[in-house]
Specification:
heterodimer; A: mainly beta; four-stranded antiparallel sheet; 11 strands; globular; B: mainly beta; six-stranded mixed sheet; five-stranded antiparallel sheet
Amino acid sequence: DVKVTQSSRYLVKRTGEKVFLECVQDMDHENMFWYRQDPGLGLRLIYFSYDVKMKEKGDIPEGYSVSREKKERFSLILESASTNQTSMYLCASAGTGFAGELFFGEGSRLTVL
Amino acid sequence: GQNIDQPTEMTATEGAIVQINCTYQTSGFNGLFWYQQHAGEAPTFLSYNVLDGLEEKGRFSSFLSRSKGYSYLLLKELQMKDSASYLCAVKDSNYQLIWGAGTKLIIKP
């Protein structure tokens, strides 16, 4: 059974703290993504990666950075958390098949106080 | 700009049929996806349409008209477990996914 695992389901952080969100997939997928999901809005792409050590900015990269040192692992970093980064963060991976559908992790709900 | 529109919320009765519409305006088109997301859970893939017409998969079917920028997801014989949000997404000319805000489907007994 395919699996995308996110390190934390729920986090509460203070403004200005550094936050690490980790994501691991076991499907040998090349492509990995970080999205945030907010009520009333579609999924918004923060960053994606097509290969190890490769990263591309998505639609809302400001305030975030990423790291992909190994194929199976894609980390999202908030250098200095702010209250407007309170959100649900979803990691996904995708292969290069016909549809290239995304497989999502369970999500990490981050609250910044 | 790029835009995906779908209704915010729909209500249907157990055992009935419901159609969730999605209209899109995107820079190019390389396929349309439907995902299901139960509250507090990850979205899961339901269907992919790249050619016009109807794709059937059990109780769920998805239709696409590229000329009209329109798709629908049809759910038959509704069950309580179908209560979820349904997300429409289009892959644009750069192969990036553009997402709708989702339709929350409420099933009543």
